[in-house]
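Chapter summary example.
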Amino acid sequence: MRNLSDARQQRPTTALLLAAGMGSRLAPLTDDTAKCLVGVSGITILERLLRTLGDRGFTRLVVVLGHEAAAIQDYLGDRSGDIEISYVTSSCYRTTNNIYSLWLARKMVDEPVLLIESDLVFEGSLLDAMLQPDRVAVSRQLPWMNGTTVTFGAKDGVSAFCLGEMSRPDATHYKTVNIYSFSRATWRTISERLDTYIAAKRTGDYYESVFAEMVADGTLTLKPVLFDADSWYEIDTLEDLAAAEAMFPRYSDSIKHVKEQATAGVAG
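The structure predicted for these 268 residues follows.
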């Protein structure tokens, strides 16, 4: 009973969305709008995320803004269904990287949290396994993927974050999906490490640099959650958008959501 209670206390109901970037590789679509407001088969990336979070009982969303901040706030308002929405704005989003966005949110969150980036589309059911503390979503690699990878240790935990030249396109490396679940204690430890990076003026780093350092020194332990490589997409370019629309066509996505909602209603 004690373990069940602890699990419930650690389960995140707050999501932290990093949405400050300019999305320049998705131009011209992002010239006058935020990347998360780009439509995928007629449904914005942000709307897809809100549906997924709402269906899984999230009650709070913290959004880090930058490019087209007002447009995102106008779109979301201060509430979406049962989800309360708050914001923090980066005034230097043009010259900093995602580590700075994450650092800005450190005082907005003091609870278990789901960290997610704003250019992802994925099957909502994939998130279910992330609703436990200290998880990282990973995927086997496909040709379109690039960026940070992780390797696993003997106990099926993440043994290393591999950035830049350390990342390899082979079967021993898994691509990070840029979704993380942190306990309150872990988030506090990460926030302290972020402070040291920002104090050292390392605002151009990726936050994965912090995770890599913490995994290496034993202060961060993460369990990988495998996402089906054919059920998620990271949208950086127009080619990515076309591929994501093929993966998530409007008709099947809409029908699936309606069926899920109807099933939830019957169950309730």
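To summarize the output: The longest strand covers residues 174-182.
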